[in-house]
Design a protein that fits this description.
The N and C termini lie far apart (78 Å). A hairpin with a 7-residue loop joins strand 9 and strand 10. The longest helix has 26 residues. 31% of the residues lie in helices and 9% in strands. It has 17 helices and ten strands. The chain has a four-stranded mixed β-sheet with strand order 4-3-8-6. The chain has a two-stranded antiparallel sheet with strand order 1-2. A two-stranded parallel sheet has the order 5-7. It is an alpha/beta fold and 569 residues long. Helix 2 packs across helix 5, helix 11 crosses helix 14 and helix 13 crosses helix 14.
Length: 569
């Protein structure tokens, strides 16, 4: 009797099972067996007491209970099906997302979330790229923010929507009708009031429960009588917290990320109907969700942005400029803002867009949106009627020193910056309450201890803000009242307020006095991850990720190898 032969189906099933088992071992079991998988060492960017940004070796931190909840939701909802969390040592990836992945970033991940599919972008570095409000709008409806997104909606993670009538209270304020449903979101007896602005469709996100609601529409953002109320569930808040955690174990790396530190001045593209038409296409794909079809800052996603409203282009007021106070920005200013984004807000960096797209959308903003239509038949084009003035000149910054920072603290007191920003720079000064921007919205002073500076992370950025002021806000120009020397010192002092603090929590980092002193030394450069400062323990310097692979295979960084050795010494 001949031996039994197995058919093709058997071998196919066996091969498939073998491949799946091998993948599970390589991606699931093997990483846990590797000694490196249990390390908590990472390199991260820190801000020193002199305001400089340097790389150092430090410990990764564990998730908080809320972040752990969010990680469970992330896993349960299958976010890892489409999003990876692993940046390879390939130039295209590091230019797009940030520093190469290190083993210590996964010390508290079990199982890890490497994934391999990238239907959506990699999320290793998504933390603090967007505001919480942006993430909430994105989960409610991704098409609000990206017209072409194929990500499903996660509106089931929200509480609501609940229809509610707008009524007038005894004090003449527009508020929400008190019903059993709305009473779960608001405290109608509370003395703490919160201003809430619906979007044009009447969608209204409630960021804080237990306060008295005031419907606030200074620019007629919504004129209807019924709104749809939504608020975040605890699971959704956890999911957002988890996403904000990703990448922050690498410190303030984003402040050294080349695409988000670009400089531009006096960039000029001649007005062109063709460029303006193309700019409209870019705007409708990328910008309309927040800034609105009319450019009035009241797009669909603005319903979730109750604290930092999107820019209203129709009033012709722009904050971030190198042009003098009161002047319109030039194309270079707009290009810088679009490329870098505005830290701490829903405005992300758009460095991944081609330069052509960015320049075209500037044309559309300047000649179509930044227009006062109050006079029918004769619209007022701000950029035509009020051409940008010549930018101010900013020379080389002085070298940082303890004496310079100390002098900056004296300028801080003398110039009374503390009246708005508070004694410690937390944005809680005696004049902070009640401040409004030119659009009528509350605008609390910046909390300078977070290290998230809207105009940019460098000392020149801070100097520029002090010199030009921020149009449309209570922040004035100090060019006429504070000398350039004092403004440089003050800029370094402002940067020092976020020294050695965790970028996500704002809490002080645990660093020994010796390491802190070494990092404060201006002679120590530590300008890249592979040259990160490491405590003087007598052991061999740690090598990370792509650098370790390169050295193991005989490659050296020819242009910087010698300087790197000098930096470590």
């Amino acid at each position: 009797m001949s031996a039994r032969r197995f058919g093709l189906r058997f071998y196919t099933v066996a091969a498939g099972f073998g491949c799946i088992s091998l993948a599970a071992f390589v991606q699931g079991v093997l990483p846990m067996l590797e000694p490196e998988s249990r390390t908590t060492k990472v390199t991260k960017v820190v801000r020193t007491d002199l305001g400089e940004l340097k790389w150092m070796e430090h410990e990764a931190s564990d998730y908080t209970p809320r972040e752990r909840l969010g990680r469970k939701v992330y896993t349960r909802e299958g976010c890892w099906y489409c999003h990876s969390q692993y940046i390879r040592p390939v130039t295209g990836e590091t230019r797009r997302w940030g520093p190469v992945t290190q083993a210590g970033e996964y010390a508290f991940d079990l199982p890890h979330m490497f994934s391999t599919r990238r239907i959506g972008p990699d999320l290793s570095r998504v933390g603090l790229k967007y505001s919480d409000a942006w993430h909430l709008a994105h989960f409610w409806n991704p098409r609000m923010l990206s017209r072409d997104s194929i990500m499903p909606r996660f509106s089931a993670l929200f509480d609501g929507p609940y229809p509610a009538k707008i009524v007038t209270d005894a004090e003449g304020n527009r508020t929400i009708e008190n019903t059993p449903v709305t009473a779960q979101l608001f405290d109608f007896k509370s003395a703490q009031k919160q201003l809430l602005t619906p979007n044009a469709e009447g969608l209204l996100y409630v960021p804080e429960r237990g306060r008295y609601p005031i419907i606030f529409t200074p620019n007629k953002e919504y004129t209807g009588e019924v709104v749809s109320l939504v608020s975040a569930s605890e699971e959704l808040l956890g999911l957002v917290a988890y996403l904000q955690k990703l990448g922050t174990n690498r410190g303030k790396w984003r402040d050294r990320f080349e695409p988000q530190t670009m400089e531009a001045s006096q960039v000029t593209v001649q007005r062109s109907e063709e460029w303006t038409a193309y700019g409209k296409e870019v705007y409708e794909r990328r910008c309309v969700g927040c800034h609105g079809v009319k450019g009035d800052g009241n797009g669909p996603a603005a319903a979730f942005m109750q604290k930092d409203r999107p820019r209203n282009f129709t009033l012709g007021v722009f904050k971030f400029r190198l042009t003098p106070s009161g002047s319109m920005p030039d194309d270079g200013d707009l290009l810088r803002t679009i490329t870098r984004g505005v830290r701490g807000t829903a405005m992300p960096s758009w460095h991944e867009l081609t330069e052509k797209d960015r320049l075209a959308v500037i044309q559309y903003i300047k000649y179509v949106l930044a227009v006062d239509p109050s006079k029918p038949g004769k619209p007022y084009l701000y950029f035509v009627e009020e051409p940008a003035q010549a930018p101010i000149f900013i020379g080389e910054s002085p070298k940082p020193s303890a004496d310079l920072v100390r002098h900056g603290s004296e300028v801080w007191e003398k110039s009374k910056c503390w009246e708005c920003h508070g004694k410690e720079g937390r944005g809680d000064g005696e004049k902070a309450a009640g401040l409004k921007d030119d659009f009528g919205f509350p605008i609390p002073p910046a909390n300078l201890t977070t290290g998230q500076f809207k105009s940019g992370p460098g000392v020149k950025d801070i100097f520029r803000t002090m010199s030009t002021g921020l149009n449309g806000t209570p922040m004035p120009s100090f060019s006429d009242t504070v000398s350039a020397e004092d403004r440089w010192a003050l800029a370094y002092y402002v940067l020092s307020l976020s020294a050695f603090k965790d970028p996500l929590t704002g809490e002080p980092m645990k660093i020994s006095p010796a390491d802190r002193a070494a990092l404060d030394n201006p002679e120590l450069q530590a300008s890249e991850s592979r040259y990160a400062y490491q405590s003087q323990t007598g052991r061999e310097p740690t090598q990370y990720a792509g650098d370790a692979w390169a050295r193991e295979n005989g490659f050296e960084f020819a242009s910087r190898h010698r300087s790197g050795e000098a930096e470590r010494n």
